[in-house]
Each structure stands twice: as C-alpha cells, then as structure tokens.
Amino acid sequence: MSAICKPYRIKTLCAAVLAPLLAACASNNSPSNVVAPGDTQSPTTQSLDAGAALLQSRPPIDALNAYLDGFHFYNGHMNAQMEAHHYCAILNEEVIQCVIYDGNRKDAKLMGVEYIISEHLFAGLPKAEQALWHSHVHEVKSGQLIAPGIPEVAEHALMEKLVHTYGKTWHTWHTDLNKDLPLGVPQLMMGFTADGQADPQMVADRDRRFGVDSAQKHKARADIPAPAVAPGADAWRQGKVFQIADPTNTPHQH
Question: How many whole angstroms separate alpha carbon 94 and alpha carbon 230?
Fold first, then answer.
C-alpha cells in the first residue's frame, strides 16, 4: 500500500470524516476577484437553470467531497501569487483530481485544475513529465494548506497523506490580474517550498477569513514526518522553468 493511504485508506477517510462544508459560512466567504461581463440571468434562463438543477444528475460534481485551500504561484514568476480554492474528488488510492476556484462563493470563477498523485506514481513518471509537478511537503508542514470546515484531527490525518503527494496544476483563468474573461493560454502553477516565499499578507488575509492560524497549524503538524522531495519535482528550483508561449502576450507581463 502506498504512502498516500497509510495508515488509513484515504477514500475511507474522506467518506467518514472529510465530508467538509463545501458551502463555507458567511464569516469564511472568499469573494471572486473578477466580475464577468454580461447581463443578469433572464427569467427564461433562471427557469432553465432551476429545471436542470432539479432534473439532471451530476455524478462528477457530487464526487467533489473535499475542500482544500492553499496558494499557488506562476512557474517562473514567484512574485505572482494567489489563493486557490480546491474542490476535490478522490478517484482511487493514488489519484485525486481537483477543480480550482478563485473564491468559495456561488459566483466564484473556475480558475483551473490540479491533479494529485502518490509518490509511488510520481516516481514512475518520465523525467520531463516530473518537471511539471510540485511537491506538497512545505505546503503541509508550513500550515499553509488547510481543509476548512473539518475537525482538526481529520485535517491532520488528511495532511499526513497529502505530505507524500505531488501536484500538477494549470490555471486557465488568471483572475489575479483582474481579467474579466479567461484570456491568454493556460499557465503552469507551482507550490511554495520554503519559508519566506509566500506573501505573508496574503496568508494572513486568508487566515483571518477562515479563522485559522497557519503558524499554529505549523506547530501542530510538527509530528508529521517530512519525506524527502523527489529530485524531479519542483524543477523551477534548478532553473528549469516551463510555460506555454502565449502569442497574445497575456496573461503575464511580469
């Protein structure tokens, strides 16, 4: 059994104690960074929307049973940082898939996707592929990655699993730049790997909204062993930066 599911099966863990409150309470609201152009819904559209909600099944959406909040930066542009709200489905013992939004309210904008895999699966990837993935060790140990709305003991157990995982993240709507539409091309994102990299004000603002203390979580997670990061991950640390060339010169001018 891989590290992602020791000592408990992560799927069982999520089913039993990780059914988070996906709709955060008002005090935890994180508004979207952008307002999409367009008229408000007409009565006809509202009726169609209500009918679809009542009559259509949504198994892939219903499978999004875990909520993680953390931070990303553009690969090659660490000064461009943002909070990312992950709504995740556990596909099996080794793979998790998440949709990422720029907020946790109904008007949040779909910002991208992240795939999370076990260290076992990561080790089997070609080196060129490994360079696209980031480690989660510092995100977990620093207290920056949180699972809002669940008991501390459940969050701690989840973090024991996630510390052994690797993520590949693409952002498709660059809401940090106040784009009113998803302009440009997808951008590869990374996670922080050391203290002093994440904007402290960004972290403090998030902590205030959720009523959490990242520093306290850092202390509480001291008992979680920090595995060695696989050499192929976090390739930007060795100067190996990859991004898709954007002919429109958006989203980044950094």
Answer: 16
